[in-house]
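> example.struct
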């Protein structure tokens, strides 16, 4: 019996997908629920598993092809083993040889790796046969490529030592037989011998989608940004006091982001227009608080969403962010993970940013930008003291949000962070 493996249903915002890579070839055995192919969409990489064990009898699309929901990707015949297809072989390979052959073919085809890993290999001139996948089912991970890069550098250095010794010996011989030119014959400057290299690569689907959304935000919204600064010493003191007990109880570190999430949720309750969005000629006020937290992924910035953040504890926020971050690094975020959201927090401070104007994440109407913490002079009770200060930036859609509301929202976030007990007391 033949089983059709189809492109899964895609969300309304995603029209099609690109075949990112095949894990199997025609004639290969595959187990039920084993991943057959990766599909790259505008937002995430989707894994398409086999719905039945058997043998791959047909593959209808090659890597790089565009597919839409419902199209048949491949055919699987329900069978326990594949049929030997090479009748011209002089002798059958042993089981070990067959396994080694398939492993080599898998690595050379490059199917068992994500698009970002393939790009990393291409950028660093790493051959697929030099990389050994340590992930599930032999999947090539980023760290596998990095290990191959280190081995390559080590080999080149070793080769360089031999080349230098040979070159030194040749130079000595050449110097003995060389005729020394006169000073007048020496040119004043040597011509440049380096090549002016450039490389052209196509944008990934995710990068194209990011570009489209950024342009859309700039064209369709009246974006303004307001700034403030916050003394982070109270939050730092709380973290220092309870970090060990927090880690021991929840198995996760107490970070800054959980404080910001809870402060923003409290401020959103007081200024509902910041949590709203524009839909045509209507304003949609959201009675829930789904907070997007921007994280870095191999293909670009993605914004997984903390659903009902108002119901989450500090520990639950930190655990969710860690989980999302790990899944983002491995291209394992789902459409549901990054869809929706009523407000976004972006932390450019982790990259060293002092100040920036974050851009809206449509259809949201506001986004908070965090920045790095630096010791700065502040006046406290008439005295100048050095305190850990972070600059905050709130970009907002002026079509919906007045400047007064934006400023007061940011001041509220500042007050809640400088006195976290306000969050517990609702003050």
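> example.seq
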């Amino acid at each position: 019996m033949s089983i059709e493996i189809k492109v899964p249903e895609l969300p309304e915002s995603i029209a099609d997908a690109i075949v990112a890579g095949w894990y199997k070839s025609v004639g290969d055995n595959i187990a039920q629920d084993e991943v057959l192919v990766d599909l790259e969409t505008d937002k995430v990489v989707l894994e398409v598993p086999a719905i039945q064990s058997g043998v791959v009898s047909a593959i209808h699309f090659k890597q790089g092809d565009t597919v839409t929901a419902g199209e048949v990707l491949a055919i699987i015949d329900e069978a326990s083993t594949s049929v030997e297809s090479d009748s011209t072989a002089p002798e059958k390979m042993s089981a070990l040889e067959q396994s080694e052959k398939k492993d080599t073919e898998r690595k050379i085809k490059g199917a068992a790796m994500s698009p970002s890993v393939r790009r990393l290999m291409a950028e660093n001139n790493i051959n697929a046969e030099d990389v050994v996948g340590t992930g599930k089912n032999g999947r090539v991970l980023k760290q596998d490529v990095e290990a191959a890069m280190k081995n390559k550098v080590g080999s080149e250095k070793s080769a360089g030592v031999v080349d230098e010794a040979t070159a030194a010996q040749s130079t000595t011989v050449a110097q003995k037989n060389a005729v020394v030119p006169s000073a007048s014959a020496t040119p004043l400057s040597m011509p440049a011998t380096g090549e002016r290299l450039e490389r052209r690569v196509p944008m990934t689907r995710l990068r194209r989608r990011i570009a489209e959304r950024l342009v859309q935000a700039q064209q369709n919204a009246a974006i303004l940004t307001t700034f403030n600064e916050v003394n982070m010493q109270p939050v730092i003191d709380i973290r220092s006091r309870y970090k060990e007990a927090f880690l021991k109880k929840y198995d996760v570190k107490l970070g800054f982001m959980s404080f910001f999430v809870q402060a923003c949720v409290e401020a959103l309750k007081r200024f509902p227009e910041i949590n709203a969005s524009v839909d045509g000629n209507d304003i949609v006020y959201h009675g829930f608080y789904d907070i997007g937290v921007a994280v870095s992924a191999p293909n670009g910035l993605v914004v997984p969403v903390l659903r009902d953040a108002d119901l989450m504890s500090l520990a639950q926020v930190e655990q969710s962010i860690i989980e999302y971050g790990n899944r983002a690094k491995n291209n394992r975020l789902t459409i549901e993970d990054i869809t929706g959201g009523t407000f976004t927090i972006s932390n450019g401070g982790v990259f060293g940013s002092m100040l920036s104007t974050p851009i809206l994440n449509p259809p949201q109407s506001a986004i908070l930008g965090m920045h790095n913490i630096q010791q700065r002079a502040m006046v406290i009770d008439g005295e100048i003291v050095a305190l850990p200060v972070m600059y905050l930036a709130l970009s907002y859609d002026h079509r919906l949000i007045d400047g007064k509301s934006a400023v007061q929202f940011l001041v509220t976030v500042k007050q809640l962070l400088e006195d976290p007990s306000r969050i517990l007391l609702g003050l």
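> remarks
DSSP finds ten helices and 19 strands in the chain.
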